[in-house]
Every structure is written in C-alpha cells, then in structure tokens.
Amino acid sequence: MANNRFAAKTALVTGAASGIGAAIATRLIAEGARVVGVDINETGLKALAERFGDRFVAATSNVTIESEVAAAVSTAVDQFGGLDLAFNVAGGSLIGAVTEMAEQDWDFTIDLVQKSVFLCTKHEARRMREAGGGAIVNVSSLDARIPVPGASPYATGKAGVEMFSKNAALELAPYGIRVNCVLPGLVDTPMGAPIIGYQPALDMFLDRIPLRAPATPDQIAGPCLFLAGDDASYITGTSLIIDGGWQLTGFPNLAALAE
Ligand SMILES: NC(=O)c1ccc[n+]([C@@H]2O[C@H](COP(=O)([O-])OP(=O)(O)OC[C@H]3O[C@@H](n4cnc5c(N)ncnc54)[C@H](O)[C@@H]3O)[C@@H](O)[C@H]2O)c1
Fold this sequence. Notes:
By secondary structure, this protein is an alpha/beta fold. It is 44% helix and 15% strand. The protein has one domain: 3-Layer(aba) Sandwich (Rossmann fold), CATH 3.40.50.720. It is built from eight helices and seven strands; from the N terminus they run E-H-E-H-E-H-E-H-E-H-E-H-H-H-E. Helix 3 runs parallel beside helix 4 and helix 4 runs parallel beside helix 5 (152-172). The N and C termini lie far apart (46 Å). Nicotinamide-adenine-dinucleotide (NAD) binds next to helix 1.
C-alpha cells in the first residue's frame, strides 16, 4: 500500500507497539507520514524504531498519566515540527463479574479505556488548534453497543469513548479538527488471542460473525486511515463499526461453554 497520501504529515499513534496500533503506524509510514509511537511497551516500540528509522520516534509513555501524555505530544512537535493526525488506540481490560469486581480493577480499566482517550485528545487537540486543524481517530469497540458478560468496565468505558468522541467533534470543529471513532469487532491481536486461540470460543464467535473470520489488524487500520485522511474531510463525530457484520447477530452466549 505504498502511496503518498500522508506525505508531510506527522501522526501520533498510541498503543503502537502491538496489534491495531502497530498496523496503523506501519500503514501511515508506508503512505508517507512520520509517526510518534506511544506505548508502555518499550521493547515493542524499539522494534518499530529499528524497522522504520528516522520516520518513527518512540515515546515510552503511560496514556493514563497526563504528564506523560503531554510529553508524548510534545515529542511530535519537537521531533517533527507539529502534529496533524492522532490515533488513540491503546487499551486493555481486567475482567470480572459485577458482583465480584474490585474497585481498583474497575478504576484501572476505566482509566485505560476512557480517561486515556480524554487525556490524549486534550493534548493532541491543543497542538492541532495552534496549527489550524487536524484529525483524531479514537478506537472504541463493538462492546460499546453490546454488553459483554464479565467485561462491564470495558464495555462501559468503550461506550464512553464513543460519546466522548462525538462531544469532542462538536467542540473542536470550529478549529478545523475532526474527531471520529471506530468500533472493531473481534481482531486477531494479542488482546483477541484468548478467544481466537481457544477453538470452542472461536467457533461460537464465528457463528455470530457473518463474514466468518476475525479482522486482521490491517483491516482495522485501513478504515482508521480513511477517517484521518482527506477523503473523510466532511466526516466528523461519526462512529464506524468494523466487525464483519457481527453487530447484526449479537454476542454469543459464552455461559454455554461453562456447562
Ligand atoms: N483485539 C480486539 O478484538 C479488539 C476489539 C475491539 C477493540 N479493540 C481495541 O483496540 C485497541 C488496540 O487493541 P489490540 O487488539 O491492538 O491490543 P494489543 O494488546 O495488541 O495492543 C494494545 C497496546 O496498548 C498498549 N498499552 C496498554 N496499556 C497502556 C498504557 N497505559 N499506556 C500506553 N500503552 C498502553 C499495550 O502495551 C499494547 O501495545 C484497544 O483499545 C482495544 O480495546 C480490540
């Protein structure tokens, strides 16, 4: 996919060390951008830096800590002279039943899924506002729309990401900053591995996914780049579901696996 769609653009990608974030960073660089990769996984970032040379700068930062987010955004400006595009991808979750979940596990997941997107958007948008515009893509999940047994903070946080993105789109439109959101279904990454690597669970999911496969990370990266690019210049505040049609059928009843 080598073309120059993002030539002269600087992009920040959180969660860049793995999965969807790594696929977004890889496609951006293939299409001409310079990328600041943000992650807590220093080793993963180093591997990308070795692969991409001076087109990629690693910022080892925790996206739940405001000072680290602000520093990562400053890295884009210091190293590449500005910030045009941002992809807020980093995420993860702790699981547990509503009746059993510890307060700190709830807080951990909500901070990682939801607060991080607020902190990143805040600091990215400040830079973009100074430069007269930009585009932000936040990664939510199909779980924002469909409850998942044992994943209440994750689903709640992802629903928050979707609404936050709409709110930010409304507030930032006057500055020429577009904000959109994607809702992936099941994706073949380390996060998806517990399902994809366990055949009985995978079969149940595939029964619900009309296209009969999990997404590759690249199948999520492509639509994210579309939303960030000029072809989407009149799109803001929208949510794009990328799920192989899974939204049409709902979640499998995983409780059946325990019987
Ligand atoms: N894999 C799926 O099935 C799926 C489905 C829907 C949505 N998503 C969402 O897509 C996004 C990317 O997930 P993925 O599947 O690529 O998972 P992944 O585990 O491969 O990548 C997540 C990355 O986020 C980084 N990260 C975690 N906590 C961080 C923190 N505090 N600060 C900075 N970086 C941090 C990790 O180190 C990792 O590199 C997440 O927001 C996830 O919720 C994934």
